[in-house]
Amino acid sequence: MFKLVNILFASLALATLARGQTAGTTTTTWDCCEPACGYTSNLSAGARGPVRSCNKTNGPAASGAQNACFSSGSNLAFSCQTYQPIIINSMLSYGFAGHGNTATATCCKCYQFTWTSGAAAGKSMIVQSINAGGITDTDFDIYTPGGGVGDYNGCTAQYGAPATGWGRQYGGVTSDAECYQLPSNLQAGCHWRWQWAGGDINNWKITYKQVNCPSQLTSISGCTPAPI
């Protein structure tokens, strides 16, 4: 009976830990598309937004602007240059990410994760979800200039990027030196990956949990989720 009780207690403790921290991985993106959370219909329950989108020169997108990754013309909406990572200190950064396959489940929510593998092991980020779709429920696609355009490329329309983006279409540039291929206003966010995180970031393991959003992130995105 003693052993059975101990086994049951250990199982309950592990279940509690699993609820508090979930395992996942990180990838990178910078496709210049209007974020999915830029549509009011995609916001998570209780969120006030939507997420800001920008015009070609990073001013506010005009009324009626269409997502640059699915439309052509002069009135287009893109991601904003302000969605680059923000260094808080040597162990913590803020930023933005795509997370989850269903926008209404994740849009505008914030998450804190800690890397458990790769050069950034032990370092953490707090990110706000501004995009969703085609991303698993346990992965975070971090907005990092030069992080790869993936399936859709709005960077050619916005910045004249190569047809498959800077570096690899999936994963982006492969060294800090390649960040100099990017427009000057995006280079700091590209260097962040190599100089702060210490490497590629793609497929590095993490544990994460949902947290309340720092005001520094919501003031950039323009979207505030329901408190937890």
Automatic annotation (TrEMBL):
GO biological process terms on file: cellulose catabolic process
Residues making up the signal peptide according to the UniProt record: 1-20
InterPro entries: GH45_Enzymes, Glyco_hydro_45, RlpA-like_sf
Keyword presence, Nucleotide-binding: no
Highest taxon listed in the record's lineage: Eukaryota
UniProt catalytic activity: Endohydrolysis of (1->4)-beta-D-glucosidic linkages in cellulose, lichenin and cereal beta-D-glucans
Pfam families tied to this protein: Glyco_hydro_45
Enzyme Commission code(s) on record: 3.2.1.4
Top EC class of this enzyme: hydrolase
Gene Ontology MF term list: cellulase activity
Entry similarity comment: Belongs to the glycosyl hydrolase 45 (cellulase K) family.
PANTHER family in alphabetical order: ENDOGLUCANASE 1
Protein name: cellulase
Lineage: Eukaryota, Fungi, Dikarya, Basidiomycota, Agaricomycotina
